[in-house]
Write a structure and sequence with these properties.
CATH topology of the largest domain: Rossmann fold
Largest sheet: 6 strands, mixed
Bound molecules: adenosine-5'-triphosphate
Structural class: alpha/beta
Number of domains: 2
Protein name: ABC transporter ATP-binding protein
Pfam family, one: BCA_ABC_TP_C
Strand order of the largest sheet: 6-7-8-3-9-10
GO cellular component, one term: plasma membrane
CATH superfamily of the largest domain: P-loop containing nucleotide triphosphate hydrolases
Helix content: 25-40%
Number of helices: 10
Number of strands: 10
Keywords: ATP-binding, Nucleotide-binding, Transport
CATH architecture of the largest domain: 3-Layer(aba) Sandwich
Order of helices and strands: EEEHEEHEHHHEHEHEEHHH
GO molecular function, one term: ATP binding
Length: 271
């Protein structure tokens, strides 16, 4: 069986802020149909790595490749056109318009940018259907006529996901999707991400601090520490690593530098 090329690759991806290297030569490939959790202590470079992939930040050196195309020098809209999706902040939306109208605006914007899913003749109907399909996928049809400003917090987060899906991305990026959610709301967003994962054409990247969330969703975990990729692999294995234990479970078994050296040694030993 032929091995499929990764959808997304970063190669030696690096950014500096002044003298501080926030993401340091991170090389990683993401396969289609997988969900990778990106973890690490506060300030490790997770959000900066996301920003480099989505185009909010430009790399100092290294490359980002999507389906074999070097997108490192492209801006956010061009990367979005090619299939990089990131959950919108609701501050970017129209709070007085309805949920449905907001989703339609994104669907229309996508169509206008030359996306060829919609034929000219019946484009209006298809755009409406596409928006309804997105609303159904995130289970917001019942709230579709409400103004965005009236949505409960959990539904607002669903709408953020809807806005991303409306752009038909191949790569879906979630930066702490459960942040600020109540205990009741967390399972709703988890179920939603799990549903999205069922579409094997989607490749999902998730920055998340809650270990139970990671455990329930991730196929793979990569660990960033001081901007460097220090562990990568099966969730159960990676969760045992000293850096993850220290950052997430409150243990401090070893100095981080020592832990990183140990992880690197283990990786070399594994070949
Ligand atoms: N625009 C910026 N200018 C200067 N320094 C920055 C900038 N953005 C991030 N940094 C620094 O880069 C490092 C990585 O930050 P980043 O937000 O990526 O970490 P993180 O792993 O996402 O942390 P957290 O889990 O706390 O969100 C930090 O030291 C941060 O202070």
């Amino acid at each position: 069986m032929a091995i499929e090329a990764p959808v997304l690759t970063t190669q030696d991806l690096t950014i500096r802020f002044g003298g501080h290297v926030a993401v340091d030569q991170v090389s990683c490939a993401f396969e289609r149909g997988t969900l990778t959790a990106i973890v690490g202590p506060n300030g490790a470079g997770k959000t900066t790595y996301f920003n480099l992939i989505s185009g909010q930040l430009r790399a100092y050196s290294g490359t980002v490749t999507l389906n074999g195309e070097d997108i490192t020098r492209l801006g956010v809209p061009e990367r979005c056109d090619r299939g990089i999706g990131r959950a919108f902040q609701l501050t970017n939306l129209f709070p007085t318009l309805s949920v449905r109208e907001n989703v339609r605006l994104v669907v229309q914007a996508k169509a206008r940018r030359g996306f060829d899913l919609f034929s000219r003749a019946d484009s209006h109907v298809e755009l409406i259907e596409r928006a309804e399909h997105v609303l159904a996928e995130v289970q917001l049809l019942d709230q579709a006529d409400q103004p965005v400003s009236a949505l409960p917090h959990g539904d607002q987060r669903k709408l953020e996901v809807a806005m991303m899906i409306a752009l038909a991305p191949q790569v879906l990026m979630f930066d702490e999707p459960t942040a600020g959610m109540s205990v009741d709301e967390v399972p709703v967003i988890l179920d939603l991400i799990r549903e999205l994962k069922n579409d094997r054409d989607r490749t999902i990247l998730l920055v998340e601090h809650k270990m139970d969330v990671i455990r329930s969703l991730a196929d793979r975990i990569i660990v960033l520490h001081n901007g460097q990729l220090v562990a990568d692999g099966d969730p159960a294995e990676v969760m045992k690593s000293p850096i993850v234990q220290e950052a997430y479970l409150g243990n401090a078994p070893e100095d981080a530098e020592e832990a990183r050296a140990k992880t690197a040694t283990e990786e070399v030993a594994r070949g």
